[in-house]
Write a structure and sequence with these properties.
By secondary structure, this protein is α/β, with parallel strands linked by helices. It has eight helices and 15 strands. The chain has a seven-stranded parallel β-sheet, sandwiched between helices. It has a five-stranded parallel β-sheet with strand order 12-11-13-14-15. Strand 1, helix 1 and strand 2 form a beta-alpha-beta unit. Helix 3 crosses helix 4 and helix 5 packs parallel to helix 8.
C-alpha cells in the first residue's frame, strides 16, 4: 500500500515541514504520495514534485480549499484514503485540527505527535509532558499519524520530479465559512523552523530585560522564544512560548538564558542539535541536557557575549 502526506501550504508557498514528513514516510515504504489541496496552487504542486522520495503529487485545485479548512479538506481525504495504508499529517495546529475529523469520518483511530517510527505498525510518541516515551502498536487498516516534524530530518529537492496527477474536488461543505485571519508580523525567523533559537526565562525578571535577548538574537539572526514561566509573568506574548504547551523547536543551536529547565520546557526543545544554557544556579536542571553550560549572571554574560559577536 502507498503512503499519503497531507501538505500544508499558503497556496503560493509550501510549508518547510513537507521535507520532514517525506523523511518520516520513507521509513514506512517507498511509494509516497503528497496531496496538495488549495486554490491556484499549481506552482507549489510543481515545487513539491521535486522533493526526493516522492512518487506522485496529487493536485486538487478548488476555491473552497483556499484556507485549508478541516471541514472542506476532510471529505476529499476520506474519498481517497482507501488507496493508502498510512496518512501523515504534521503535528501543527492545522494537522491537529484536520486529522481527528478525518479519523472520525473513516471510523478509525489516530496517533498523535509521533516522534519515532519502529515499523509500519509500531510508533513512538511522548506522554506525560514528554517525560515518558510510549511505544504504540497500531493495526488499523488505514493508520492516521501526526508527525512531530522536529524529530525527523528533512529530505532535499532533487533534479528529477514526480508526476503530478490532478484529482477531482469533493463537494463544498457550505456550512462553514472562512471569516478572517490575523497574522503576527515578525521580522525575525519563525520560531518553529529557525536554525538558531534564543529563549529567555523568568530569570530575566521583567519584559524590559528581554531586550538583552533581542539584542543577542539580532547578532545571530535568531528567533526568540521564552519559557512558560516568562510568559505567565507577562514578559512576552504567549506565541513565543517553547515547550509541551507551546511550540516544539529543534534548531541547530538553542540558547537557554535564565531558564531552570522545567520538564514541560525541555519537552519542547530537547531535540535541538546543540544546547547552550546560561544560568547562575549551577544545580538548574537545564544543565543536565545542555551541551555547553555557563554558570554566570545572565546580566553580565549576555551583554558580554553580544558585544563580542
Amino acid at each position: 500500500m502507498s503512503i499519503l502526506i497531507i501538505a500544508e501550504h499558503e497556496n503560493a508557498k509550501l510549508k518547510n515541514n513537507l521535507a520532514n514528513l517525506i523523511f518520516a514516510a520513507k521509513q514506512l515504504g517507498d511509494d509516497i504520495h503528497v496531496l496538495i489541496a488549495g486554490h491556484s496552487c499549481s506552482a507549489i504542486a510543481d515545487a513539491a514534485s521535486h522533493y526526493e522520495g516522492l512518487t506522485k503529487v496529487l493536485s486538487c485545485d478548488a476555491e473552497h480549499y483556499e484556507h485549508q479548512l478541516a471541514e472542506e479538506l476532510s471529505p476529499l481525504i476520506t474519498d481517497i484514503a482507501k488507496n493508502y495504508s498510512h496518512i501523515l499529517f504534521a503535528a501543527t495546529t492545522t494537522g491537529k485540527n484536520l486529522m481527528p475529523r478525518v479519523a472520525a469520518m473513516l471510523d478509525s483511530q489516530c496517533l498523535s505527535d509521533v516522534c519515532s517510527i519502529n515499523s509500519d505498525t509500531q510508533f513512538v510518541r511522548p506522554i506525560y509532558a514528554g517525560n515518558v516515551l510510549a511505544t504504540i502498536e497500531c493495526h488499523e487498516a488505514i493508520k492516521l499519524l501526526s508527525i512531530r516534524c522536529s524529530s525527523f530530518d528533512a529530505v532535499e529537492q532533487g533534479t528529477t520530479s514526480a508526476p503530478i496527477e490532478a484529482i477531482e474536488a469533493s463537494n463544498s461543505f457550505k456550512r462553514t465559512r472562512f471569516v478572517c485571519e490575523e497574522l503576527v508580523e515578525n521580522e525575525r525567523p519563525e520560531l518553529s523552523t529557525a536554525e538558531i533559537v534564543i529563549s529567555g526565562g523568568r530569570g530575566l525578571g521583567s519584559a524590559e530585560n528581554f531586550e538583552l535577548i533581542y539584542s543577542l538574537a539580532d547578532k545571530l539572526g535568531a528567533a526568540v522564544g521564552a519559557s512558560r514561566a516568562a510568559v505567565d509573568a507577562g514578559f512576552v506574548a504567549n506565541d513565543m512560548q517553547v515547550g509541551q504547551t507551546g511550540k516544539i523547536v529543534a534548531p541547530n543551536l538553542y540558547i537557554a538564558v535564565g531558564i531552570s529547565g522545567a520538564i514541560q520546557h525541555l519537552a519542547g526543545m530537547k531535540e535541538s542539535k546543540t544546547i547552550v544554557a546560561i544560568n547562575k544556579d549551577e544545580d538548574a536542571p537545564i544543565f543536565q541536557i545542555a551541551d555547553y553550560g555557563l554558570v554566570a549572571d545572565l546580566f553580565d554574560a549576555v551583554p558580554e557575549l553580544t558585544n563580542k559577536l
